Amino acid sequence: MSLQWAAVATFLYAEVLLVFLLCIPFISATRWQKIFKSRLVKLLLIYGNTFFVVLIIILVLLFIDAIREIRKYDDVTEKVNLQNNPGAVEHFHMKLFRAQRNLYIAGFSLLMAFLLRRLVTLISQHATTLASNEAFKKQAEGAKNRTLKADNEALAMRKQAEGLTAEYDRLLKEHAKLQATCEGQKDKKDE
């Protein structure tokens, strides 16, 4: 395996590992969001789009090169008589196998790059949605608490008003008794 294909295979293995890590169920989306918002990741994101585009271009070029190699060895079977030289048949099949292997490695690396980017985007969106839902819940709970407090205050004021009304009625009755007593004493004096 040449150096370029070893690098692409290593990159493919790293992508598979990252996708596996992102899909682990016990690491929550909010934890990933915290990791995505770290300073190191933000620094990587500054150059991330450029890196991603360059990476895609390199993988597409390697994919096209692998297709070219496969076509080259497909054309050889028609031009060369492989029946006369058994070693050439094995050599031809080995070269064709390597070209096909390189095609698969480049194709899967290209696919995994797109999948990895989409997975990170979806996890980030999910964490943002969870955070906004949590904020809405806190806001609704705060509004509920304010409404409950206002209801309690209204109930207390109603009870206070009922108490004041009862006290007013009691004072009116007492006033009426006192007035009746005073008028009764006045009538006795006038007689």
From TrEMBL:
GO process terms (BP): apoptotic process; endoplasmic reticulum to Golgi vesicle-mediated transport; intracellular protein transport; protein localization to endoplasmic reticulum exit site
Location of the Bap31/Bap29 cytoplasmic coiled-coil domain: 149-191
Stored Pfam families: Bap31, Bap31_Bap29_C
Transmembrane segments: 6-28, 40-64, 103-120
Membrane protein topology class: Multi-pass membrane protein
Coiled-coil portions: 154-188
Gene Ontology cellular-component annotations: endoplasmic reticulum membrane
Principal location class: endoplasmic reticulum
Record domain BAP29/BAP31 transmembrane: where: 1-135
Domain of life: Eukaryota
Subcellular location(s) per record: Endoplasmic reticulum membrane
Keywords: Apoptosis, Coiled coil, Endoplasmic reticulum, ER-Golgi transport, Membrane, Protein transport, Transmembrane, Transmembrane helix, Transport
Gene3D superfamilies reported in the protein's UniProt record: 1.20.5.110
PANTHER family found in the cross-reference section: B-CELL RECEPTOR-ASSOCIATED PROTEIN 31, BCR-ASSOCIATED PROTEIN, BAP
Function in brief: Plays a role in the export of secreted proteins in the ER.
Family the UniProt entry places it in: Belongs to the BCAP29/BCAP31 family.
Full protein name: B-cell receptor-associated protein
Lineage, uppermost ranks: Eukaryota, Metazoa, Chordata, Craniata, Vertebrata
